[in-house]
Model the fold of this input.
Amino acid sequence: MKEQIESIRKELDELAAKDMAGAATSRELYELKMEYLGKTGKISALSKGMRDVSAEERPEMGKLVGQLRARAEELFDACEKTLKKRELSQKIASEKIDVTMPARFAETGSVHPVSLVKQELIDIFAGMGFDVFEGPEIERDYYNFQALNIPADHPARDMQDTFFITGEYLLRSQTSSGQIRVMEQKKPPIKVLSPGRVYRSDSDATHSPMFHQMEGLVVDKGITLNDLKGMLDEFARRMFTSETKTRLRPSYFPFTEPSVEVDLSCSACGGKGCRICKGTGWIEVLGAGVVNRRVLENCGIDPDEYTGFAFGMGLERIAMIKYGIGDIRLLFENDVRFLKQFKG
Amino acid sequence: MKAPLSWLKDYVDIDVTAQELTEKLFSCGLEVEELIYVGAEIDRCVVGRIEHIEKHPDADKLKICKLNCGGFGSDIQIVTGADNVKEGDLVPVALDGSSLHNGVKIKKGKLRGVESCGMLCSGEELGINDDWYEGAEVNGILILHDDVPLGTDIKKVVGLDDYIFDIAVTANRPDCQSVYGLAREVAAVLGKTLAPLDLGYKTGEFGTCDRVSVTVEASDLCPRYIAHYVRDLKIEKSPQWLRRRLALCGLRSINNVVDITNFVLLELGQPMHAFDLAHVEGSKICVRRAKDGEKITTLDEKEFTLTGENLVIADGEKPVALAGVMGGLNSGISEDTKEVLFESAKFERANIRRTSRKLGQKSDSSARFEKGVDAYTTGIAINRALDLIEELGCGKIAKDRFDIGMTKIEPKTVKTSVSQIDAILGIEVPKADICDILKRLNFSVTAKGDALTVTVPAYREDVDGYPDIAEEVIRMYGYDHIEGTFLKSAAVTNGGLSAQQRLEERAKAALRGQGYCEIITYSFISRKDYELIRMEDALAGAIRIRNPIGEDMSVMRTTLAPSMLSTLVRNVRRGNEAARLFELARIYLAKELPLSQDPEERKTIAVGLYGAGEDFFSAKGAFEAVADEFGLHFTYVPAQKPFLHPGKTAEVMLGSVCVGYLGELAPDIAEELSVETALYLGELDYAAIEKCAGGALKYQPLPKFAEVRRDLALVASEEVTCAQAEQVIRESCKYVTRVHLFDVYRSAQVGEGKKSMAFSLTFTPHEKAIAPEDADGYIRRIVKSLREKLGMELR
Done:
């Protein structure tokens, strides 16, 4: 008995030294394990053989067989662990995928570049305390012209070729009409943006019969041209680059006095002069000015108590400058290859 | 407004370059849109004297000339074919490497074997006519009649060495629509004195009033009317200087009298007219409204029938001019004209504008009157015209005149203060600078402490308050003095989009999340668009533009569908494989026509899509995405639309209200458009759903007990819809929170006219957990209801 135990122990040690006879898979290892520890295995056979051992030897033999079983289990467990580990690494190694194959995802849509500019402007000015007002597009002559200090047959009407519906109704030619509607409803302090579609009878590479404007209006106590300049400086830096500068120069709008044209330093060349700015280093971007006293009076606001400024810009023009779009018509063709370039 | 540099120099000592002047004018509000160098085309063309001429040995019609061009060479050989040259003539010589009118380049070459180092030029080759230089129109070489040094640049001789400033004059500055008006600005900008106009003339011993009577009946439309009689006229060619001035401004010389009226218009901006008194009946001139139906034929031989809205200048019998627009054919200046009545008038601009628009008749004169002519200049201009009559010696001037209306111009005075001006500008402009600037601009200023009393020049009708004065100050002082501040004194306000405006952004974001690209299309469409979608009936109620660019942009759209459809079709035609598009825009709904109250501008969402894998249900996904974002539940009802597939169209219901539709484009329309892919489109009444969008967010406690899921497969007849089954399921068990149809199956086994529908149901417990046997009970109840109400059987 003792010899048998000793021989099995040796066998096991030899097996262990040779990685359990090189069992390559869990299955092989299991089968080997069963040879010793299975119901009919060698060690189980020893246990069964205890019946033939004398009573004096039995406790000692029992102890030795127990030790042998423990030893065998330990050896097999250790080997099993190694094997599992190896098997897992093999499995992992075999599971390599081509990560460059296409993803499964739902492509998101895009924001129209004009909307993108509009959103960005609203963000910039909302931070400065501006509300957003949307007025009607089919507008009365009064709001589009008369209240803005452009009486009937005034030459300033020729500045904009207007579409008429009736003698009274027209398609608004400027979002400035929003100024009047806001000031009729609200008393100062006023800070409001009025974005939207406007219409003029004009159509070529830089003019569209329908386009978008954004009007800005501030009315409060002690508002000056400096405030207009400061606000537009901030707009220019945030809309274009931190180096963008503004330049005011005299102009004329019936509803502002003084009126200015506002140029931005060309962000394409940094003001040195290039094709985009036609070599001048400046790009004309918006019109602005101090709100004409008559306009305030028309809206029941005392021009001696309050002053204000207004500015208006074409969103298509800004989009074209910002994104380098050469022809305004691209904006209204809505080719999906064009649209998808503008993810907001 | 075009102003030649040479003309401006008559009045201002301009000691800066044209380019520098351009910059200076720009910064004070006169944008030079184009600075044109008149002789830009002509280069290396100089004055030469023909020293010797001999015949070409091999060509009868050619001559070999030897030219002395001063510094450019004293023995230049040039072959010419012209026969009007002789030895001793001064001629324009285009040297080797020179450029001429219309981009012609001259290079040394051989003519029939004889070397020719350039070309002798005709006037045409220099791009000039007799108005520029007498003799320029002769057939042959231009023979110069001035004694100029040899080698002189020809541009200096013929008037091409000049600049034209093409200036954009803003609508508030009609006084700058003239050379002299611009000269005033130039003088102010450069700080120079402005030379006065020559306005003096000698008169004869006869009077205007003896020859003709002038009355102004419509004084409201004619604030000032001046008429001055000139007789013993000699109608002839104008002198070179005058003709060249007109030529520089793009006008052809006609004759001295007509040229004078044109010259004064250019120089002072006052349209002038001269009536041939031989054709004025009854020696009477009357400024009056036309009689209804009265006719006039204008100088350009167009006949107009007039109404009481039109102002005319009439003689004793008939209109002889359409006031401010154009003279009558019957009273124009001809070679035989012996006596004229010069007219200088201020007509009310609105009336001229209306007449010009209504009749479709325009002229330099009407354009000028529409911008506004000041009564002061009306008076100056007549004197200037008479001065020119005298200078040209072309007639005798009457000793008196008719001057009716605003004969005395009271100067306007604005009371303001330095602090008031500073307040509007936001900077402190030194008082001395304010006064200096205003004086340079011909304002007179009286300063008393802070207070300023400013008298406005008579020609500045645009100035009527202190903001105008502030504007004059800052444009000359310089906008670069304005320093950016940030609303120093303004109240803090809370800005941003309103909740309603944010909702719109959310709807758009939801659609973008589903892969939809935003489009923007024109608000106006055409009759053809309505025809294409078989909705001609809707046209009657649509708002029309009275003056559209074309029929294709004449109707304010009452539906976004045609614009979406044409955008889809454009994308298909351009070979784009797929597109998901949306637009959020307004449709325009008149309450009545013609418009007498504001129409409804209803915000609407249009959705359009096509491409592999797209079908009705992917389109429906767009609507569900919006519903989900807004916390709304849409139901879909089979419907018919004239332009959609009758079997694949639904109306979208929010409760009992229809808020939209969607469907596949009708195959016959697709065929008409040669589109082979199925297009899907729909519209959603955004204004309607916006009102119902979910309110404030509120947390719902998570269910304490696990949800139970069961699948259920049933056989139904084809007519049973998913929505009907879902409704019955929900009604049968209050714990059902989700019903999802995950499979529809048809086979012979299922039966003819039948389908198998497989639903996945979710039960959400309320107070206590749902035990398996409870769920079994719910299922039994549901199956029973489905059988009873819809005839569905468990599979």
About this structure: Chain A has a mean pLDDT of 89. The beta strands of chain A are 131-132, 138-140, 169-171, 190-199, 210-220, 246-253, 256-265, 282-291, 307-314.
